[in-house]
Amino acid sequence: KFYAILVSFFISVACFADDHSGESVGKGAFSTLMVQVSDVDAYIQALKSNDGPFKTVGSVAAGYCLTRSGNDYPGQMFVWNAFDSVSDAMAGVLKYDPYKAPKAFNALREVKYSAIFKPLNDFKLDPGIERLWRIAVPAENLSKFVEGIVEIESALREQGYDLNMGVFMALAGGAAETKTLHVRAAARDGATLGKIVDEYFEGVPWSETWNRTIAMASSIETDTIEECEQVYSAD
Length: 235
Prior knowledge:
Elements: H1 2-19, E1 29-37, H2 40-49, H3 52-57, E2 61-69, E3 76-83, H4 86-92, H5 103-106, E4 109-119, E5 129-136, H6 142-158, E6 164-171, H7 174-177, E7 181-187, H8 190-201, H9 206-214, E8 219-233
Antiparallel strand pairs: 1-3, 1-4, 2-3, 2-8, 4-6, 5-7, 5-8, 6-7
């Protein structure tokens, strides 16, 4: 099973690279620490008042995303770190052990797992209210799937929406993340995300692009709405 997963990953990357020769995928990488939090407000305040871990791992920016709809458990959220490269992200995860954090900090959370993500398209980091899908996409459909998401983002921006969409591939994501891509749509508020959905059901032109793109997937595993905020910058 491990061999099959490993081969599938490299086939996915190879297919994407072959179809995008001369083009560049998204820059940088992200690491995520998935947690269950007992006191959300206290934990967020702790993140904002203690930038030591972010400096330790060498992130260029960091923040959190709190799951507000579609959560699997109370207090579901994750802390994210942005890096200039996958190399920096992988080096960073070895510089900080969340299980050895101060007791006062760990008392606020239960660590679930961590993962690293590589963006497959240019993604503007501008946290807000975000919809996240975990979507399984066959390797042979990967490049066209990413192209479809980029096309939808462009169409929505042309309509005046301040929206950023990204497709992210998990690296070292364990059982929780290895089989799916993350597709993220980030807006300023929930009303904007809802209005986009309303327009989809009204049959606006880009809805056909979405239908064609999502048909390339083999399954949608999760669909959540998250409240995200940046709390640290290395600048």
